[in-house]
Design a protein that fits this description.
The complex is a heterodimer of chains A (about 160) and B (about 400). By secondary structure, chain A is mainly β. Helix content of chain A is about 15%, strand content about 50%. Chain A has one domain: Immunoglobulin-like (Sandwich), CATH 2.60.40.2550. The longest helix of chain A is centred in the N-terminal third of the chain and has 23 residues. Classes of the chains: A mainly beta (about 160), B alpha/beta (about 400).
């Protein structure tokens, strides 16, 4: 432990204390939230269908979009490491949870399932990134103006 | 009442105290209380300390979730700061003052819980020795709120045996324990008896019905060469502390007198793998390694069993006893930890670490099928009467009300 790292740590600790005070006085935004983003598989093959389950919590009805975006973990840059994204417009519940699933075969075929009904994505994009390796699957909940309410990420390993 | 719960993780994160918290919170919400949970947004315990979060992460939690009427707020845990962690938490608090303060910590949680606690009637603290309980307690005292603590205490564990944990229990308006053993232990450490409420642990009885039992029985019979042997089942982590080696020794001796099969169910560690591989093939025909089973496979196996055995050195409660009982299966535990107070007259007890005593108890129990049947039936009745989540929830609610009105 040297003086430089100790002083850096002291600054971090001070920032932590300031953060506590900031969170004490800052009122919570009542934005919708992606409560849960889960997939049962970690390792899978291109062509194999991946299932992602999501729960969106809201305490007011709001028009927004859910976007699931895939990047190569080691190179999350656009367009080189950008695999694809898929979006679906949603109306959040008045007060409660909305459960939905997203199915993707890693060959650009994707569907959303909400309340037992299957939908194709409202928006999508795919690039040329389809190499083996670890991918980040990010779920974004965004409003009509593009403000991101919440972003959650998972990791999946793909092989050919 | 508005009940604000502070807990280290919340389901679907897996853990005993996490499940207890979820079931109790759901009960309180169901019975009309305004229930809020404040927790970290991590799934696995290792994620308290890790950056980035789990490298093979397949579960992620967001900021808010409504779990059957319970509002769950999850906050980002702050990463340990090297100097603070080693110098302040390690040398000063841990070594000098014997206070466990390593974490996890969250600036966001510590800030935002202030606002929630201000509006609470009762602040419900879950699980020692996590530091967030001290912050919540401090805020509760500032706002003159009542506090109840369920420590899920592990006697003799170095992180639990701290004066600061006992201090917190003494200062709270109520303490909840899951067994009489835990209560007696805390009383012996100076916690006022009158403010300790024993609630227990529970299961959902409806989740323990057998399914496709004939097919399951036929498959197990064929796969493991069952004839008319009596079936002993062990369910748990296969570690030294669970008494697995003593059980294997006892069954090796017992099979010379009584035809038996021992099924060992649960996760393994290297120590157990070496132990099992050292058994000769004849022993392995009697002592069968089952690995981890699905819930339904476990339930079906219990319905086939004559006796569940858990010869552990320590159990804080022993939920597996409830699981066996609800399937009508009698149980055998040891005289250690909470087991005597949980099992009572409705099962069998042996000495921990004594394979000869265990063999004797197994032989006595298995020799009397009528006794086995009646102990199984007694256990089942006890679960339905004392160990369902509705019963536990009612006891917790009573403890919260007592604290609130004190």
């Amino acid at each position: 432990m040297n003086i430089t790292s100790a002083s850096k740590d002291a600054v971090k600790a001070l920032k932590g204390i300031v953060s506590i005070l900031y969170y004490m006085v800052r009122a919570d935004k009542s934005n919708p939230s992606i409560s849960l983003f889960v997939t049962s598989q970690y390792r899978l093959q291109f062509g194999q269908i991946s299932r992602f389950d999501l729960i969106v919590y809201s305490n007011r009805p709001l028009d927004c979009s859910l976007v699931v975006d895939f990047y190569l973990k080691e190179d999350p840059s656009h367009p080189v490491g950008h695999h694809a994204y898929f979006g679906k417009k949603l109306k959040t519940p008045v007060a409660g949870n909305l459960q939905l699933s997203f199915f993707y075969d890693w060959n650009y075929n994707a569907t959303f399932k909400i309340d037992g009904t299957t939908y194709i994505p409202d928006t999508s994009w795919h690039g040329n990134c389809q190499s083996e390796g670890k991918y980040l699957a990010n779920a974004f909940l965004v409003d009509e103006t593009g403000e991101v309410f919440e972003q959650l990420g998972l990791v999946q390993e793909l092989y050919l | 009442m508005k009940v604000v719960n502070i807990v280290q993780r919340y389901a679907p994160a897996v853990g005993g105290s996490e499940t207890w918290c979820q079931e109790v919170c759901r009960y309180l919400a169901r019975t009309g209380h305004d229930v809020e949970v404040i927790t970290y947004n991590v799934n696995k315990e290792e994620e308290f300390w890790r950056e980035p979060l789990d490298k093979e992460r397949t579960v992620a939690f967001g900021e808010r979730y409504l779990d059957q009427g319970v509002l769950v707020r999850r906050y980002i845990r702050s990463l340990p700061i090297h100097t603070i962690h080693h110098l302040i938490y390690g040398r000063l608090l841990d070594q000098l003052f014997k206070i466990y303060f390593f974490g996890p910590h969250s600036a966001e949680m510590y800030g935002k819980m202030w606002r929630s606690i201000r509006k609470a009637d009762v602040v419900f603290l879950h699980t020692a020795p996590y530091p967030h309980n001290y912050f919540a307690f401090l805020y509760a005292k500032l706002f003159r709120k009542k506090t109840v603590f369920v420590p899920h205490f592990h006697p003799k564990h170095p992180h639990y045996e701290r004066w600061s944990n006992y201090w917190l229990m003494k200062k709270c308006d109520g303490v909840i324990t899951v067994s009489e053993y835990e209560k007696d232990y805390l009383c012996s450490k100076g916690i006022t008896k009158d403010k300790i409420h024993v609630t227990g642990n529970a299961i959902h009885p409806e989740s323990y019905a057998p399914l496709d039992m004939n097919a399951f029985r036929a498959s197990v019979t064929q796969k493991y060469g069952l004839h008319k042997e009596q079936i002993i089942t062990f369910i748990g982590r296969k570690t030294k502390e669970k008494g697995v080696s003593h059980l294997i020794e006892a069954v090796k001796a017992l099979r010379k007198d009584i035809p038996v099969k021992l099924f060992l169910v649960g996760p393994t560690i290297d120590w157990y793998t070496d132990l099992y591989e050292s058994l000769d093939p004849n022993d392995r025909e009697t002592i069968i390694e089952m690995g981890v089973l699905s819930h339904q496979e476990k339930v079906n196996l219990l319905h086939m069993s004559d006796l569940l055995v858990l010869p552990s050195q320590y159990e804080a409660f022993g939920i597996v006893f409830l699981e066996a009982w609800i399937c009508g299966v009698p149980v055998l535990g040891t005289t250690e930890g909470a087991m005597p107070s949980v099992i009572g007259e409705d099962g069998f007890l042996c000495k921990f670490g004594d394979a000869a005593d265990l063999k004797l108890r197994l032989a006595e129990a298995l020799a009397d099928p009528e006794l086995l049947k009646s102990k199984g039936a007694q256990g089942k009745a006890k679960v339905l009467q004392e160990y369902t989540w509705d019963v536990i929830g009612m006891k917790v609610e009573r403890a919260l009300r007592t604290a609130h009105d004190s």
